[in-house]
Design goal:
The complex is a heterodimer of chains A (727) and B (380). Chain A is α+β, with helices and mostly antiparallel strands and 727 residues long. Chain A is built from 26 helices and 24 strands. In chain A, strands 2, 3, 4, 5, 10 and 16 form a 6-stranded mixed β-sheet that branches. In chain A, strands 12-11-24-23-18 form a 5-stranded antiparallel β-sheet. In chain A, helix 13 packs antiparallel against helix 26 (710-725), helix 15 (380-390) packs across helix 17 (432-453) and helix 17 packs across helix 19 (488-495). Chain B has helices spanning 11-15, 18-40, 52-72, 75-80, 82-99, 119-137, 148-162, 167-183, 188-209, 212-222, 229-233, 237-249, 260-263, 275-308, 312-336, 354-379, and strands at 42-43, 48-49, 101-103, 106-112, 115-118. Chain B has a 3-stranded antiparallel β-sheet. Chain B has a two-stranded antiparallel ribbon with strand order 1-2. Classes of the chains: A alpha+beta (727), B mainly alpha (380). Chains A and B meet through helix 1 and helix 2 of A and strand 3, helix 8, helix 12, helix 14 and helix 15 of B.
């Protein structure tokens, strides 16, 4: 019996070994080349050479963002000597005590890390005991821990020494951002490059334990301008590093927002490396620097626009933000894309929470996005007029009588009593009654078509993230989103540019279409991408760059009779040049250096109809101001499926306020909250158009959020920009 | 009956017959081991040659002296006192659990003077002796309950070793038990049933009984073909580098002391657990095949010795020792080529490690001792 079983066991044994031999054959003979290559790769020491990130320049080739070398002096606490510190003191002309203090701070940090690691490795709970031990000598610590049952004193000492050796050999930053001159001086002395025998190993390192670290930093020579457009760079995240898609290294930077993000691939360049093999060969592959971006933006004009907006915001207490856009009407090049308020690029990670909580929302680029998308107001009347002319709803002779209101009762009022006005006067004087009538006659489908012709309700396709589409309302949409029928009143309001939601960039683009008589241009920010060593001419001219400029074909064209354009242009000209008692922008005329065609707009927010909740609630919760508590907001969002809605703020009682939304749900709020909501009730100001009147070159749009009447707050900003461009 | 020195011992049978072959094969393996340890103990980075090979040689001399003593003792004395040997083994384990020396988070050693003794090594031999006696003397009823006693006797020390924690060593007990129980003539259906139960228990044990790092190693083994960059640097590092070392060797190897994985320190634990990868890199497929051939021949010889031995208790003892050595050999070599998860089992006779060498040689000495006495026993 037992002998039989031994035979079975023997067979089992004799089968097991050939299995391993087969596996070894597979590894060692079949796949030998691949593994040998990996073993060779193990031996190679890669030293990555980071390419310079491409610069960003404005249309005149002025540097807006550049990469500059950044030097730090670091210290190895275990290696540094007193004489090295003395030398450093001489070099930086700092007292030696100060430097020693800094080095000691590094050492204290090391000791703290060592103790923490020690506790972890020996599985000693990081209790108060460990804290007590922090100050004591390792011998005393070992003596103490010997009594504990976790590990022997000898083991602790061994671990401690290993950790100390490890941590004290690492480099720690001592002086950050030292000048190029200092860094070179230190390098020269350290490696004795100025002596003849720098190859000799005997040259004593006078700065032993001190190293120069070379990194790159993004610099903004023009200061804190265009932060939203340029975006920023940030360290590569752990996920990106692990994904390996772009071959990032841990210490790499990558574009995080704006153009830095969109053009990451082009700006980044490709990494070079030098390889040192231990088997005696080395080679270097040089890095390829990133490409330069040349923008359509005029940095000077941009600066004028930003400063003017900032000033206007400071002067208008109700205003919460603003934007100004100037387009080259024919090509769609964005000359100015300003927004206010802006965050500071330098303070990015530190103040982020503060910016999130700021009710003025500095993180938003008002030119292309808004948590509370504004309607264009009367500016939209231009588009309605053109559509009405083309579809024969009106002509130059039709007159409509304005008595200051549409019906005896109801909310359809006009700003003045205009009397009987024709189309040109209606535009110049911004008569609501005329366009209520137009809106009602054209009807919702026609108005929506009109809006789409001028590019509303769709993204302009500008090269940075975050652009909104806006909203073109239709009866279908209203039913779906608000669960309400479309009333004739809605058509009337649509006719004067309410209900519809737009971005300033869309308005400027629509104005470019008006200026060019029917061509909707493709708005873009990047004019060209240049190779890193490109020799820029002193002056930008079309000859030398035509080959490098990407072609941006118009989005679409709309052909209508020339006389309709003439008529509307005439009306727009009269906005600033017409009779002062009628023309809405008459006060601006004297300030302008060039004749412009324009339109003011006052987008009604409604005196007690305040948009509190809308689509942004769901998508951009981080930008919601703290009007309501989180629970209330959540409840609202649930009840309305997160869709757009408006609510009324009412006073119910002594110091009792409530929000009443469309579905007759009441929420009591405090007085302060009610006041904050009401401040938002100030109308949005718009001023848009094109210039010069003859042979229009630029179109523009200025938007002041809760800025009140259009000609008053938005107008002056536009004047500043226009005067700059035609100085 | 007290024990008699050299009682009935036949030197011719022990040293020139099958025993001689076994000793010769072991000797060659140990020499290969010392040469590889010598190669593995030099680091190019630090330029230091650590004295592992010399230490291993000293341990070898010491072990040979101990082995001479073991060969001199009549193994029947050991069998007679199997219970006490087992009891002493368990007592050692219990003592270790209380006053043992901890290293790297587990408590496996007791300190005797300058020596650190891994008590589970004693237990391995003790369990073989205990099972040999128990299985040869047991009155069989023919039911599955016959298995209760041998399994219980094995599971108790296993549990103590798992708690140290030292999962790898405790798992070695399972093949020893199975081989010995199987050879003793237990009905195969009983064994199959027990194995099925064990397999079903292993899944919950995997999820609830293992430490995170152990589970990670199993995962690395199972999914070794698609490791992430992080895993290659982390929990899969041993496996990856060991495979590169083997593959780098090719057919004939890089040459002794010329393996780059070894000399530049990419291969971790290279003088102990991964000594086989050092051989794979420096001697290539030829070297690894020769080493495996030597092992196979040694264990085959031991099985033949078991086959030709007349007394069941002797046979079982030899089989237990063969199972002990074979298991360690197969698990260790498989782990270096990625056929088994990484466990801390050294390669018998080749890996650096004094007490492992001592106890493996002691086990072999026991086999020699049996071989030298088989004729005398038969004539009893």
């Amino acid at each position: 019996m037992i002998k039989q079983r031994i035979k079975v066991i023997t067979i089992g044994l004799l089968l097991a070994f050939p299995g391993i031999v087969l596996r070894l054959f597979y590894l060692q003979v079949v796949h030998h080349p691949a593994y040998a290559q990996e073993a060779t790769r193990n031996l190679e020491q890669y030293q990555a050479i980071t390419p310079n990130r491409g610069a960003i320049r404005d249309c005149q080739y002025r540097l807006m963002v550049k990469t500059a070398p950044d030097y730090h002096i670091s210290v190895q606490p275990g290696k540094v000597t007193d004489s090295a510190l003395k030398e450093l003191g001489k070099l930086l002309s700092l007292p030696i005590e100060e430097i020693i203090e800094k080095v000691e701070a590094c050492q204290a940090e090391c000791d703290r890390k060592i103790l923490a690691d020690l506790a972890r490795e020996l599985k000693i709970p990081p209790s108060e005991d460990m804290k007590e031990l922090g100050g004591k000598s390792p011998e005393a610590m070992a003596g103490y821990l010997e009594k504990s049952k976790y590990a022997s004193a000898r083991h602790i000492m061994k671990t401690y020494r290993r950790l100390k050796q490890d941590y004290y050999r690492r480099k720690y930053p001592l002086f950050k951002h030292v000048s190029h001159k200092t860094a070179m001086e230190l390098a020269l002395r350290k490696y004795a490059w100025n002596t003849e025998d720098y190859h000799a190993a005997s040259v004593e390192d006078r700065f032993s334990g001190l190293e120069i670290e070379h990194t790159v930093a993004r610099q903004y020579p023009l200061g804190n301008t265009m932060v939203h457009i340029l975006g920023r760079v940030g360290p590569v995240s752990r996920d990106e590093y692990l994904a390996q898609e772009k071959d990032f290294r841990m210490q790499d930077i990558a574009g995080r927002e704006g153009l830095e993000k969109t053009y990451e691939e082009k700006l980044r360049g490709s990494r070079g490396c030098s390889v040192n093999s231990r088997q005696g060969y080395d080679f270097t592959e040089y890095p390829r620097d990133g490409m330069d971006l040349v923008l359509t933006i005029d940095a000077e004009a941009q600066k004028v626009a930003e400063e003017s907006l900032d000033l206007m915001l400071a002067e208008t207490p109700t205003a919460t933000g603003g934007a100004a856009v100037v387009l080259d009407a024919t090509s769609g090049e964005i000359v100015v894309l300003a927004t206010s308020p802006r965050y500071e690029n330098d303070a990015y990670p530190k103040k982020y929470q503060e910016w999130l909580a700021d009710p003025k929302r500095p993180l938003e680029n008002r030119a292309i996005e808004n948590s509370y998308p504004p309607p264009p107001g009367s500016v939209f009347k231009i588009m309605v007029a053109l559509y009405a002319l083309h579809h024969n709803y009106t002509d130059e002779h039709r007159g409509i009588t304005c008595r200051g209101f549409l019906k005896e009762r109801g909310s359809f009022a006009c700003t003045h009593v205009h009397g009987t006005v024709d189309l040109v006067d209606a535009i110049a004087g911004s008569c609501n009654i005329y366009f209520y009538t137009m809106g009602e006659e054209i009807g919702p489908q026609g108005l929506a078509e009109c809006a789409r012709i001028f590019g509303f309700g769709e993204k302009c396709g500008v090269e940075i993230d975050g652009e909104q589409t806006g909203l073109v309302p239709t009866p279908d949409w209203k039913k779906r989103a608000l669960r309400e029928e479309w009333y004739p009143g809605d058509s009337r309001m649509f006719g004067i540019g309410q209900r519809i939601e737009v971005t300033p960039l869309q308005v400027a683009r629509a104005m470019a279409m008006v200026a060019t008589r029917g061509t909707l241009p493709r708005a873009h920010l990047v004019k060209a991408v240049y190779p890193p060593d490109y020799d820029y001419p002193a002056e930008s001219s079309s000859d030398n760059e035509i080959s490098l400029v990407a072609y941006h074909p118009p989005v679409h064209t709309w052909s209508i009779e020339e006389k309709y354009w003439d008529l509307v242009h005439e009306g727009m000209r009269l906005v600033t040049e017409g009779d002062s008692h009628l023309a809405t922008g008459a006060k601006l005329r004297n300030k302008l250096k060039v004749r412009i065609a324009s339109k003011t707009g006052t987008a009604e927010v409604g005196k007690d109809q305040v948009p509190i909740f809308n689509v942004s609630l769901v998508h951009r919760q981080d930008l919601e101001s703290e009007i309501l508590s989180a629970e209330l907001r959540e409840e609202f969002a649930q009840n309305h499926n997160g869709l757009s809605t408006r609510a009324t703020v009412k006073k119910t009682d002594e110091d009792k306020w409530q929000i009443d939304d469309r579905f007759r749900q009441y929420f009591l709020i405090t007085r302060e909250q009610a006041i904050e909501i009401r401040t938002k009730a100030e109308d949005h100001a718009w001023f848009a158009g094109f210039f010069p009147v003859e042979g229009p070159r630029y179109s523009f749009a200025v938007f002041i959020e809760h800025g009140g009447y259009g000609g008053q707050s938005a107008g002056p900003v536009a004047v500043d920009i226009i005067n700059y461009l035609y100085r | 009956m007290g024990f008699k020195f050299k009682s009935n011992f036949s030197g011719r049978e022990a040293f020139f017959g099958l025993g001689g072959i076994a000793m010769l094969l072991t000797g060659i393996l140990i020499m290969i081991g010392i040469a590889s340890i010598y190669s593995a103990s030099y680091s190019v980075r630090s330029g230091i040659l650590l004295p592992y090979a010399k230490k291993q040689l000293m341990w070898l001399l010491f072990s040979l002296a101990v082995c001479a003593g073991i060969v001199a003792v009549d193994y029947r004395w050991l069998l007679k006192n199997a219970f006490w040997i087992y009891a002493i083994g368990v007592a050692f384990l219990l003592v270790t659990a209380v006053i043992g020396t901890a290293r790297g988070g587990s408590r496996r050693w007791i300190k005797i003077g300058p020596l650190l003794l891994q008590t589970s090594e004693i237990m391995k031999l003790a369990i073989i002796i205990a099972l040999a006696r128990m299985l040869s003397k047991q009155q069989r009823t023919g039911s599955i309950m016959d298995l209760m006693l041998p399994f219980g006797v094995t599971l108790l020390p296993m549990l103590l070793i798992v708690l140290q924690p030292d999962l790898g060593t405790s798992l070695v007990f399972i093949p020893i038990l199975l081989v010995m129980v199987f050879a003793s003539g237990v009905p195969i259906k009983h064994l199959v049933l027990v194995i099925l139960i064990a397999v079903n228990l292993s899944l919950p044990l995997y999820h609830f009984g293992l430490h995170d790092y152990q589970r990670k190693r199993v995962q690395m083994f199972l999914f070794q073909s698609n490791m992430t960059r992080e895993e290659k640097q982390g929990s899969g590092y041993h496996l990856v580098q060991s495979k590169i070392a083997h593959g780098n060797g090719g057919t004939l190897g890089r040459g002794w002391r010329h393996g780059t994985q070894n000399r530049y320190g990419y291969l971790p634990e290279r003088h102990t657990d991964f000594i086989f990868a050092v051989i794979g890199e420096e001697r290539g497929f030829t070297g690894t095949t020769v080493v495996l051939l030597l092992y196979a021949s040694l264990y085959f010889t031991m099985l033949v010795m078991a086959y030709t031995t007349p007394v069941p208790s002797m046979q079982l003892m030899i089989l237990g020792i063969t199972a002990l050595l074979t298991t360690q050999t197969i698990v260790n070599t498989c782990m270096t080529v990625g056929m088994a998860p990484i466990t801390g089992l050294p390669l018998p006779f080749l890996s650096y490690g004094g007490s492992a060498l001592l106890f493996n040689l002691a086990a072999l000495a026991l086999v020699i001792s049996i071989a030298g006495r088989k004729d005398a026993v038969r004539s009893d």
